[in-house]
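Input chain follows. Return structure tokens only.
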Amino acid sequence: MNVSRSPMHTLAAVVITALLTVTAPGAAVGAGAALVSRNAGNLPDDASPPFTTQRIATFDYPWAIAFLPDGRLLITEKPGRIFITTPGGGKTPVLGVPEVYYRGQDGLLDIAVSPDFKRDRTVFFTYVAPEDGGGVLTLAGARLRDSGHRASLDNRHVLWRQQPASRGGQPGGIIAFAPDGRHLFLTVGDRMEPDRVQDPDNARGKILRLNLDGSAPADNPMAGRPGIRALTWTTGHRNPYGLAFAADGRLWEDEMGPKGGDELNQIIRGKNYGWPIVSNGDQYDGTPIPRHSTHPEFEAPRVYWTPVIAPAGLAFYYGAQFPAWQGSALIGGLVSHGLVRIAFEPDGNARQIDRWSLGARIRDVSVAPDGTVWVIEDGARAALLRLIPRS
């Protein structure tokens, strides 16, 4: 993973640099425009995808994809394994992975390649570490040692740990680097303890912004405050499993709602997204939850899905293989068993343009240096697939 889970550095660096001189990360673009929430839940699958799929390799309960600069992939498996995988399907296990709390949704989660990887060989990864009969979401870094035939995580160190421990799922754990490479954003789910989300002293339901050494940036919304407040960028999130920067410097996130109300959000500094006070879905037992429209003080999603798609990995597309997709977001769907494409409008609104069935739960999506799209299925004997343009 890099700035946006896609190889956008060369194409978008000039655009990002210019925007960052006038726009803080996550700041609203198109101020004054009428922003709307669009329900894409009932939109049908497209009949004919513009791509074919190639099965490259198989993994057991994979969770995340990250591309190394040379085009190889890092793949995590939730039980606690990492592999370096070649585009041809060769797999080298990475030694030195820490013990994980592997239960339900918990285990080894995301992995991301340092913005300065060619110099520092650093990778960042998240996992739920065992503690007090449950687990704590943990962000760690390590130096990736790779001889071509043997690989390991050396100098492993913890940058942040969520406290207290929990036996619940919905850990979040997605990493995204700011376009300037100086800060790291981390999603933290509600751990199935929604009543703690609106507590500013509890990390549950937050998106954090950290320096690359794990310390609190001096310009965070609550910089200088004690504990988790100093790291908090936004709050009010449920189960955030996608996080990525677009080329214009805006940060986007997707998260799973309850019974309905999956969300795609623009992440704006200091905003509250309302969970569990508001949602565009209801409790699983049918108990209604007030809608976003009833509480305008909370930031509403730009796109939501009722019925749900269970959005997972999120990547922005920049490449030559699919010219019509430039600047689009690609979202893997667990319940929808496929891939969704989102297009963005100059006024800050977003719209689902395509939905393609792939016949399996899609856990993560990433874009290769050559512009092909790669997705990983969810579950046992899950396939790593490469999507190439249909002739």
